[in-house]
Specification:
The chain is an alpha/beta fold. It has eleven helices and 19 strands. The protein has helices at residues 14-25, 95-109, 152-156, 177-182, 219-233, 309-327, 335-361, 363-372, 374-385, 390-395, 404-425, and strands at residues 5-10, 30-34, 47-49, 64-68, 70-75, 78-84, 90-93, 112-115, 119-125, 128-133, 137-145, 163-175, 186-191, 198-203, 208-215, 234-235, 264-280, 287-288, 291-293. Mean pLDDT is 91; it is low at 240-259. The chain binds flavin-adenine dinucleotide.
C-alpha cells in the first residue's frame, strides 16, 4: 500500500514544526497537518527560557520582542523586590509570530504543510497509519502527535494516563508607552498567593502580556486573582474591560487595597482567554505502536512554572530522532523515544514538581531567600538559562541531599492541605 509520507505530524506549534524541521532537513518525507490558518493567536505568555536557543539551529532573534534582565517579585502582592541580572534571563515573543516563523522553517526544510486540516482520528494498521481529517484521509508509516492540549492523537493512542490539568489565563493589555519603556526588560512575578499558581506580566513590543495560572481545581479563583493582581500593579482604565467568548466577567472594581503598586497606566485589554496546561505526573509511555506524542499532547508542561515551549521543542527533536532511527532500520520499534523522554524530560519535570511542593509549603521563606541570598538568585538565573537543571538544585543541599525526597514528600502534604483550605475559603476580602 502506498504512503502519502513517511511521517505525518499533527499540529504546527513548536513541537510539530521542530519535529518536522529535523525530519525534513534529513530528507525524510513529512506532511504537517494544522487545523488553523497561520499566523494564529496562541494563548501563551510567549516567554522563552535561554536554554531553547541551544535546541534551535537557526536564529530566532527576529521573533524576540524583549529581552528580560530583571524580575520584580511579590508575595501575595506584598514584600515587593526587584532583582537584576547582567545576563539575559529570558526572552519574550508573541506566539503568533514565533510559531509562524518555525512553521516556515519546517516548510523551507521540505515539509509539506497543510493548514486548515483538522485531524479527527486515525487507525493503526499492520504496516502503517490512516489519518482522517474533516476533508480527507492520509496514509503514513509513522505519526507524531503535536496537537497540543486538545490531545486528539494522545487520546486515540491511549497515551494520556497520569496527566493533570493546569489552567492559565492570558490577557494582552496596552499601556502608556512610557511604562512599556520603563518595564521593557522586567518581568513581574507574584507567587505564594494562589497555592500552586502564580501571576505574571511579560513586556512585549507594544503591550503587556498578563496572566495567572495554577491547578485547574482553582479555575473559579483565577479571575479574582487576575483582578487583584492587576489592581496591585497598576492603574486600570475603566474602558479596558472586555468580554471574550472564553472569558468570565472581568470585574474592574476590585475590593483589594493596592499595597505596593507600580502604577502602570493600563489602557485597553485587547483579549483575554484561558487554556489548559497538561502536566504529566509520572514516567509513562510516550509512544504506542507507530504513534509518538510530543509537547502538550504528551503532557510535558513544567508543573512549577508552566513552561512548555522548551519541552515541546526538545520532545519534537527527540521524536524526529527516534523516527529516523526506525525508518533507517536501525531500530525495530520506537521504545527509545519513550525511554529518552522519561530519562531526560520527565526526570526534570518530576524534580520540578518536588520543588513546587517545597515552594508551596513555605512560599514566603523562599521568596525572602531569593531576595536576601545572592546564591539563591544566581541559581534561579542559572536554571532559567539552562546552565543548571532542576536536578542540580538538590545537589546544592550537599550532605543533606539524601533527605530531599522525604522533605519534598512532606512538603507535598502541606501543599495539599493549603489547597484544600484555599478551596474552602478562597480569597479573603
Ligand atoms: C496562558 C498560558 C501561558 C503560557 N506561557 C508560557 C510561556 O511563557 N512559556 C512557555 O514556555 N510556555 C508557556 N505556556 C505553555 C505553552 O503554551 C505550551 O506548552 C506550548 O504551546 C506547547 O507547544 P505544542 O507545540 O506542544 O502545542 P501548541 O503550541 O498548542 O500547538 C498545537 C497546534 O496543533 C493544532 N491542532 C490542535 N488540534 C488539532 C487537530 N485536531 N488537527 C490539526 N491541528 C490541530 C493547534 O491549532 C496548534 O497550532 C503557556 C500556556 C498557557 C495556557
Amino acid at each position: 500500500m502506498s504512503f502519502d509520507a513517511d511521517v505525518i505530524v499533527v499540529g504546527g506549534g513548536p513541537a510539530g514544526s521542530m519535529a518536522s524541521f529535523f525530519l525534513a532537513a534529513e530528507g525524510v518525507s513529512v506532511i504537517l497537518l494544522e487545523k488553523s490558518a497561520f499566523p494564529r493567536y496562541k494563548v501563551c505568555g510567549g516567554g522563552l527560557t535561554h536554554k531553547i536557543l541551544a535546541e534551535i539551529p537557526f536564529d530566532l532573534s527576529g521573533t524576540i520582542e524583549t529581552t528580560i534582565r530583571s524580575i520584580r517579585f511579590s508575595h501575595a502582592f506584598q514584600h515587593v523586590f526587584t532583582r537584576t541580572s547582567d545576563e539575559p534571563m529570558m526572552y519574550c515573543t508573541m506566539r503568533s509570530d514565533l510559531d509562524q516563523f518555525l512553521l516556515q522553517k519546517a516548510a523551507e526544510a521540505g515539509t509539506n504543510v497543510f493548514t486548515g486540516e483538522q485531524v479527527t482520528g486515525f487507525i493503526q494498521e499492520e504496516n502503517g497509519i490512516t489519518i482522517t481529517t474533516k476533508a480527507r484521509s492520509y496514509r503514513s508509516r509513522l505519526l507524531i502527535g503535536a496537537e497540543g492540549a486538545s490531545g486528539i492523537v494522545s487520546r486515540v493512542a491511549g497515551l494520556r494516563d497520569s496527566i493533570e490539568q493546569g489552567l492559565a489565563w492570558e490577557a494582552e493589555v496596552t499601556a502608556d508607552p512610557d511604562d512599556l519603556k520603563t518595564y521593557a526588560q522586567t518581568v513581574f512575578l507574584d507567587w505564594g498567593t494562589l497555592p500552586g499558581g502564580y501571576a505574571w506580566v511579560f513586556p512585549k513590543k507594544d503591550h503587556f502580556s498578563i496572566g495567572v495560572g495554577g491547578p485547574a481545581v482553582f479555575s473559579k479563583q483565577m479571575m479574582p486573582y487576575y483582578d487583584r493582581f492587576m489592581s496591585s500593579i497598576g492603574v486600570q482604565n475603566p474602558q479596558s474591560s472586555v468580554l471574550s467568548p472564553q472569558s468570565s466577567v472581568l470585574s474592574l472594581q476590585s475590593s483589594v487595597l493596592r499595597p505596593q503598586t507600580s502604577d502602570i497606566r493600563f489602557k485597553e485589554t485587547l483579549s483575554i482567554h484561558s487554556w489548559p496546561i497538561p502536566i504529566r505526573t509520572k514516567k509513562s509511555r510516550f509512544h504506542n505502536g507507530h504513534v509518538l506524542v510530543t509537547g502538550d499532547s504528551a503532557g510535558l508542561g513544567d508543573p512549577l512554572t508552566g513552561e512548555g515551549i522548551y519541552y515541546a521543542v526538545r520532545s519534537g527533536k527527540l521524536a524526529a530522532g527516534a523516527c529516523m532511527e526506525y525508518l533507517s532500520g536501525k531500530t525495530g520499534d520506537l521504545d527509545v523515544y519513550s525511554q529518552k523522554v522519561n530519562d531526560e524530560l520527565m526526570a526534570e519535570l518530576l524534580e520540578a514538581n518536588r520543588i513546587k511542593h517545597l515552594f508551596n509549603a513555605v512560599p514566603l521563606k523562599i521568596h525572602s531567600f531569593v531576595r536576601d541570598s545572592d546564591r539563591a538568585w544566581r541559581a534561579f538565573g542559572k536554571v532559567l538559562r539552562g546552565e543548571r537543571w532542576y536536578k542540580d538544585v538538590r545537589n546544592g543541599f550537599g550532605k543533606w541531599k539524601h533527605l530531599w525526597p522525604l522533605v519534598c514528600f512532606l512538603a507535598g502534604i502541606i501543599e495539599k492541605r493549603k489547597e484544600v483550605n484555599f478551596l474552602k475559603k478562597g480569597f479573603r476580602a
